[in-house]
Amino acid sequence: MCLAIPAQIVELNDLHAVVSIGGVTRDASVMLLEDAAVGDWVLLHAGFAIEKLDPDEAEKTLALFREMAAAVPGPGPDAA
Question: What is the CATH topology of the domain spanning 5-71?
Fold first, then answer.
């Protein structure tokens, strides 16, 4: 199964971006997007931004991920 997640571009240098996912930053390629800009929300898959997202849709998707994580028994994501 493949999973793509919403991320926000926080830095951009040519075809390389730094994206933020829940406050955690990752490197990503934006070579598949025509007009990426800092502040854009993108769908991130395997290190590639594959599509730009509407900010409201990105937040809805992230909220669903948070709900799913909360429903899983056991230690939460902040557990050491």
Answer: SH3 type barrels. (2.30.30)
